[in-house]
Design goal:
CATH topology of the largest domain: Rossmann fold
Strand content: 15-25%
Number of strands: 16
Mean pLDDT: 96
Low-confidence stretches: none
CATH class of the largest domain: Alpha Beta
Structural class: alpha/beta
Number of domains: 2
Strand order of the largest sheet: 3-2-1-4-7-8
Shape: globular
Helix content: 40-55%
């Protein structure tokens, strides 16, 4: 099939590349000329394991193309995926990029096309898109459907090819058959295809993310209780997760959720509910709990340092919101680090995906190119992100300083072993 992907951000680039690897002709379009030039030269602008290899492979095989010509790309395609960003603005989804794409589509419907919203959009957005496209000259030339993505950063390619489910929101038999054929290579072995209404598909994405965010905030609050009662949160999480009705995923205590989805989607879902005069009290509590998480962790750091942060050297191992990605959006480190600097701390950080522009304006903050440089002479080492290279460190050799402390926000180490090695070790909920 001939596919046009509008937007070469995380969702668009991964989806377009994977569709091309399934044998389709895919054009990924974007208004960012620099990004398109980089992609055409083989440079992938995001960190996602395995993506660069797939891009190069499918470019070489003439299945994957990158362009700034949105009009021509739409005309050449049978299916157009809208994969642009939907950031929150005043706690609601900002759809200006979505509708900009829709107006481009409306001018280029030269034959029947399926218009797919893969961007995360509020319920009824598909209705608005349909209304914009529904002119006399475009009659019977399109079908608007919803096909939400469920790609985890760091696991996106695997999630695409081995999905838990493929959700298609449409009542059109014709469009549904075309989409089923498109996804057939990855759904034929297992019954992963789920057809529903367009509005239901739009809500499924928000409701899924809100539920997963709830699990994260829930286990973090239980971890707080575990610390008070001298119980290991890992044992509690394991015991809860054995219940098949609950499952063990997203039950790991840590700094709180961040990234491109959970924060904005929970806020946007509450806004949608408020407009419908529905009180989503549980989701509101999740948002509040996650916002308070950063303050609580900063307070814990102060306590670990005996409330003396002035001129203390604090090292952060990892600053992204989770391992396997270079994404800094709403990472807990963005709030914790400035708070520590205000208290007079000197911050160093090492991040496997490189230095972060988000910290460029902060004083008393240094990016280190390796672990040894980052940890040397530190008073406190904070394991912020669960990268594999942080899981078996010899802290005494790295730090080379007496009485330094370790705050493991990801519970990567055994408290018993750390105590046996005579290390001042602190963790979450244990």
């Amino acid at each position: 099939m001939k596919i046009c992907i509008i937007g070469t951000g995380y969702v668009g680039l991964v989806s377009g590349t994977c569709f091309s690897d399934m044998g389709n002709k895919v054009i990924c379009v974007d208004t960012d000329i620099n990004k398109i030039n980089k992609l055409n030269s083989g440079t992938v602008p995001i960190y996602e394991p395995g993506l660069e290899e797939l891009v190069l492979k499918n470019k070489k095989n003439d299945r994957l193309f990158f362009s700034t010509d949105i009009n021509g790309s739409i005309k050449k395609s049978d299916i157009v995926f809208i994969c642009v960003g939907t950031p929150t603005k005043n706690n609601k989804a900002d759809l200006k990029y979505v509708f900009k794409a829709v107006y481009s589509i409306s001018k280029n419907l030269n034959k029947y096309k399926i218009i797919v919203t893969k961007s995360t959009v509020p319920v009824r957005t598909g209705d608005k898109i349909e209304k914009i496209l529904n002119s006399k000259k475009n009659k019977n030339k399109f079908c608007v459907l919803s096909n939400p993505e469920f790609l985890r950063e760091g696991e996106a390619i695997r999630d695409f090819f081995y999905p838990d489910r493929v959700v298609i929101g449409t009542k059109s038999k014709k469009a549904n058959n075309i989409m089923k054929n498109l996804y057939m290579p990855i759904i034929k072995k297992k019954n992963r295809y789920f057809q529903t209404s367009r509005r239901a598909a739009e809500l499924i994405k928000y409701a899924s993310n809100a539920f997963l965010a709830t699990k994260i905030s829930y286990i973090n609050e239980i971890a707080n209780l575990c610390e008070k009662l001298d119980i290991d949160i890992k044992e509690v999480s394991s015991g809860i997760g054995l219940d098949q009705r609950i499952g063990g995923r997203f039950l790991r205590a840590g700094p709180g959720y961040g990234g491109s989805c959970f924060p904005k989607d929970t806020r946007a879902l509450v806004t949608t509910a408020n407009r419908s005069n529905t009180d989503l009290s549980i989701v509101k509590s999740v948002i509040k709990s996650n916002n308070n998480r950063n303050k609580m962790l900063t307070s814990k750091i102060k306590k670990i340092m005996n409330y003396n942060l002035k001129n203390k050297i604090i090292t952060f191992l990892g600053v992204t919101f989770k391992a396997g990605t270079d994404d800094m959006r709403e990472s807990p480190s963005l709030k914790i680090i400035p708070q520590l600097i205000k208290k007079g701390s000197l911050i160093k950080y090492y991040e496997p995906t490189g230095s972060k522009k988000e910290f460029n304006k902060l004083k008393h903050l240094k990016y280190c190119t390796n672990l040894r440089e980052a940890c040397k002479n530190s008073d406190l080492v904070i394991i912020h992100t669960e990268w594999n290279e942080f899981k078996q460190l010899n802290f005494k050799t790295l730090v080379r300083k007496n009485n330094f402390k370790i705050y493991d926000m990801r519970n990567l180490y055994s408290p018993e072993k750390m105590k046996k090695n005579k290390l001042n070790y602190y963790c979450i909920g244990r």
